[in-house]
Every structure is written in C-alpha cells, then in structure tokens.
C-alpha cells in the first residue's frame, strides 16, 4: 500500500510541474494577445508576421505538453481506480497529503484566475479584429462605390445601366 501512495505522490509532483508549465503557457498567451492587439493597432505587418510564426513554432511544444498532462491524468486515474473523466484536481485533493493539497489548490486557483483573464483578453482581441474588418470593409466599399450613390440609370430602351463615373475625385464644377 505504501508503494501505491509513493507512486501517487510522485505522479502528483509531475502533475504540479505540468500545471506550472500550463500557468506559464497561459501567461505567454496573454502576453501574445497583448502584443497582437498592439501590432494590429500600429499596423506593423512585419512584427505581426514574426509573432504569428513564433506562436506556430510553439504549438508543437504545447501539443506534447498536453499529451504529457493527459498521460499523467490517466496514470493517476488508474492508480486511484477512477475514470479519466472523473480525475480532476478537486478529486485529487482528497487523496494527497496536506502539503500537496495546498499546492494543488494554489495551482488550481492561479489557473482559474488566468483562464478568466485569458477569456476576457481573447474576447477583447476578437472585438478589435472584428472592428478592424468592419472598418476595412466600409473603407473599401466607400472607395469602390464612390461614384455610385444608389441612383439607378435607365437608357432609352428602359433597361438599367451601370453608372460609369466611378472616380475618386469628381472634376466637374
């Protein structure tokens, strides 16, 4: 029975390290969202491209980390005789020592706080990008439909014709 306890404690230690990496990842994501908004506002395409490339480069590492976390969860679930679905931090708290329980609670609280902040920042970024797209659409529409004021022109046959005065500047006085 002692070896099972030690095995669980070791897996919990691995999970805590994994949760620390999750916290770092979320903090990095928050920083990236902040940089993204800043670069979009500044219209710095070069730096924006570099930021997106660095995010893509990190995605493989994040996938490996996710697989590692799920593996640890699976092993803990097996050791505690519960399903993977039921293996949560809250459930894990009931099986570990007070020291580990405190560490799990701290990590869980920090993760919840950061995730709330990430959701808020993600929404803000989505709204900014949506507004940028809307402004660009209005700008393009105003440029390319400048001469078209919604008036319909008819020729002698009674059919409609397209207005040809689509210039940016009307030189008629």
Outline the structure in words.
This protein is mainly alpha-helical and 173 residues long. It has one domain (2-133): Up-down Bundle (Methane Monooxygenase Hydroxylase, Chain G, domain 1). The protein is 74% helix and 2% strand. It has four helices and two strands; from the N terminus they run ααααββ. It has helices at 2-42, 45-79, 89-93, 98-144; strands at 153-154, 160-161. Strands 1-2 form a two-stranded antiparallel sheet. Helix 1 packs antiparallel against helix 2 (45-79) and helix 1 (2-42) packs parallel to helix 4. The longest helix has 47 residues, at 98-144. The protein is elongated and about 95 Å long.
Computed over alpha carbons, the radius of gyration is 28 Å
Q: For the terminal residues, how far apart are their CA atoms?
A: 96 Å
The top-level CATH class is: Mainly Alpha
Helix content: over 70%
**Spatial strand sequence of the major β-sheet:** 1-2
Give structural attributes.
mainly alpha, 4 helices, elongated, 2 strands, 173 residues, Methane Monooxygenase Hydroxylase, Chain G, domain 1, single chain
In short:
The protein has helices at residues 2-42, 45-79, 89-93, 98-144; strands at 153-154, 160-161. With 173 residues, it is an all-alpha fold.
């Amino acid at each position: 029975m002692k070896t099972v306890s030690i095995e669980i404690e070791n897996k919990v230690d691995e999970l805590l390290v994994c949760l620390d990496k999750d916290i770092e990842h979320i903090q990095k994501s928050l920083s990236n969202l902040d940089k993204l908004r800043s670069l979009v506002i500044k219209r710095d395409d070069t730096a924006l491209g570099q930021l997106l490339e660095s995010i893509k480069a990190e995605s493989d590492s994040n996938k490996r980390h996710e697989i590692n976390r799920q593996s640890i969860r699976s092993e803990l679930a097996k050791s505690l005789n519960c399903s993977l679905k039921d293996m949560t931090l809250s459930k894990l708290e009931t099986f570990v020592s007070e020291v580990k329980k405190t560490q799990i609670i701290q990590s869980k609280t920090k993760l919840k706080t950061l995730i709330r902040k990430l959701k808020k920042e993600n929404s803000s970024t989505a709204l900014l990008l949506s507004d940028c797209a809307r402004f660009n659409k209005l700008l393009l529409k105003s440029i390319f439909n400048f001469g078209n004021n919604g008036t319909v022109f008819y020729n002698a046959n009674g059919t409609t014709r397209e207005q040809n005065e689509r210039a940016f500047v009307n030189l008629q006085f």
